[in-house]
């Protein structure tokens, strides 16, 4: 693997009180609780355009869930400005932490290394939990954060995986090659869910179990939308890099995983599939009939047969289709790369075990772990699968508080397989990855906060002698150039020295 990767996660937020809380207000206050000093806005929104579509046009509008429109109206009624409501923070570890209407959202630093990304994703959990502790102490009420994708009332919030890839890959080829993979990836990347939902009706089948939390909410194959009329393949064109060379694959079809292993396999396998796509190695016989229907049927199929109808007239299974992607990767990608070797080995092992007995993966795959927990509870307590108590238990699996979250109870017992250490996670809380542009962003914030005018994913703008000087980080997509810039930053004692040594200005 050798590409920039990152994860954006929206967290569910609630207060341990009888009446419903204002999630917009609480999200704002949670983000504010991170700060130890007065907030100074630095994020530059000018380059962001969620309406720009990869298919070569700009959308006139975005589909919104009615609740999203309500949140926007609530935003307008708040006395704070837009910038204050967003409370957009750039952290010294290269990450971004902000309020996304009713959800605190954490965007990891860009990483080149898969296991760096896992550490940074988990660092986000710990940073958010620290915020929750501070906010709880101030309110004298428990603020609870969930790393999940639904409130069980027909609303979904996302966990988006992002990959920098080549711009010159034809759009239609990219879409047709990737959708079958995304439709079937959930068999090892799903976070598990109790019940079936619809945006229009809310919970429609509370006693059902399915493997994915997000599958219920996809309605179209491809679209620029992310909040309503969600697509399996998102076409938002915000590369956050040189747009002549790169696009950012903005994946919204995944669940938020608690398991480090699940996250690593989800991101790692997808990155290898992108490698195959960039080499034009995906055949056209992978295409699935009615992928919207297929993604839901796979999620809800508790026989684990996961059958699919292909456009070429054949019938296959999600396991077999995933295995075909795997075999292509085994044939054409370099197995001598440590990360690639790990992904290929674990991908194959997981598919084999899913075919033999999925429940043996209770130590690795979130949907299996959660189903095992719920089944055990149902049998011991003698309750039905539609009991609201069970739904609360399912949600508690995603509680990121290590003192109360069920996932963390299992991890503490040594029951969950890990891929990073606590030491790596603690390092990621405070430090950006050294081999990407995130290091330049994070360390600039750390060293020269008072002389920074604005920050974006691809630039940092400094104030020097009353003049704004922007460092364009597009070239830092190259690890060697990134390391050069980062080394110059480490050595610079002043902004003036930094700018001079970079040859800018």
How would you sum up the major sheet? 6 strands, antiparallel
Q: Name the overall outline.
A: globular
Distance linking N and C termini: 35 Å
What structural category do the secondary elements indicate? alpha+beta
Q: What proportion strand? A: 15-25%
Strand order of the largest sheet: 5-6-7-1-9-14
Estimated helix fraction? 40-55%
CATH architecture of the largest domain: 2-Layer Sandwich
CATH first level of the largest domain: which class?
Answer: Alpha Beta
Low-confidence stretches: none
**What is the overall pLDDT average?**
92
Query: How many beta-strand runs?
Result: 19
Return the CATH topology of the largest domain. Creatine Kinase, Chain A, domain 2
What would you report as the Rg, rounded to the nearest angstrom?
A: 22 Å
Q: Any idea how many domains?
A: 2
Number of helices: 16
If you had to describe this structure to a student in words, what would you say it looks like?
- With 505 residues, the chain is an alpha+beta fold.
- It has two domains: 5-427, Creatine Kinase, Chain A, domain 2; 434-502, no CATH class.
- The chain is built from 16 helices and 19 strands.
- A six-stranded antiparallel beta sheet has the order 5-6-7-1-9-14. Strands 17-18-19 form a three-stranded antiparallel beta sheet, covered by helices on one side.
- The protein starts with a strand and ends with a helix.
């Amino acid at each position: 693997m050798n590409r920039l990767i990152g994860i954006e996660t929206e967290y569910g937020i609630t207060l341990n009180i009888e009446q419903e809380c204002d999630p917009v207000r609480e999200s704002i206050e949670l983000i504010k609780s991170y700060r130890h000093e007065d907030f100074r806005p630095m994020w530059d929104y000018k380059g962001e355009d969620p309406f720009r579509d990869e298919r070569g046009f700009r959308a006139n509008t975005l589909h919104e869930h009615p609740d999203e429109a309500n949140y926007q109206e609530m935003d307008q009624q708040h006395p704070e400005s837009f910038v204050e409501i967003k409370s957009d923070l750039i952290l010294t570890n290269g990450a971004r932490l902000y309020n996304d209407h009713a959800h605190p959202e954490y965007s990891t630093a860009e990483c080149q290394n898969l296991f760096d990304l896992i550490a940074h994703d988990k660092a986000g959990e710990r940073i958010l939990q620290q915020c929750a502790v501070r906010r709880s102490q101030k309110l004298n009420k428990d603020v609870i954060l969930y790393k999940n994708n639904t409130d069980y009332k027909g609303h979904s919030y996302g966990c988006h995986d992002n990959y920098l890839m080549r711009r010159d890959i034809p759009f239609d080829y990219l879409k047709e090659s990737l959708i079958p993979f995304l439709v079937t990836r959930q068999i090892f990347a799903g976070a598990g869910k109790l019940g079936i939902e619809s945006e229009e009706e809310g919970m429609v089948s509370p006693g059902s179990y399915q493997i994915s939390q997000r599958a219920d909410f996809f309605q179209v194959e491809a679209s620029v939308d992310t909040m309503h009329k969600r697509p399996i393949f998102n076409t938002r064109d915000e590369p956050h890099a040189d747009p002549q060379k790169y696009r950012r694959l903005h994946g919204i079809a995944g669940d938020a995983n608690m398991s480090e292993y699940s996250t690593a396999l989800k991101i790692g396998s997808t990155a290898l599939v992108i490698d195959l796509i960039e080499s034009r190695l995906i055949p056209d016989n992978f295409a699935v009939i009615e992928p919207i229907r297929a993604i839901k049927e796979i999620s809800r199929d508790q026989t684990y047969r996961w059958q699919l109808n292909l456009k070429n007239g054949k019938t296959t299974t999600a396991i077999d289709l995933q295995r075909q992607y795997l075999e292509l990767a085994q044939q054409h990608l370099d197995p001598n790369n440590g990360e690639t070797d790990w992904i290929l080995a674990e991908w194959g092992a997981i598919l084999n075990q899913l075919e033999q007995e999925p429940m043996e993966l209770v130590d690795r795959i979130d949907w299996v772990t959660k189903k095992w927990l719920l089944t055990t509870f149902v049998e011991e307590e003698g309750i039905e699968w539609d009991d609201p108590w069970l739904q609360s238990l399912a949600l508690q699996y995603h509680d990121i508080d290590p003192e109360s979250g069920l996932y963390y109870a299992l991890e503490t017992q040594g029951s969950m397989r890990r891929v990073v250490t606590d030491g790596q996670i603690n390092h990621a809380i405070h430090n950006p990855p050294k081999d990407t542009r995130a290091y330049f962003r994070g360390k600039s914030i750390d060293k020269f906060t008072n002389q920074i005018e604005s920050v974006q994913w691809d630039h940092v703008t400094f104030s020097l002698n009353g003049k704004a000087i922007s460092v364009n980080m597009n070239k830092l997509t190259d690890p060697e150039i990134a390391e050069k810039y980062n080394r110059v930053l480490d050595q610079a004692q002043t902004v003036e020295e930094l700018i001079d040594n970079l040859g800018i200005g």
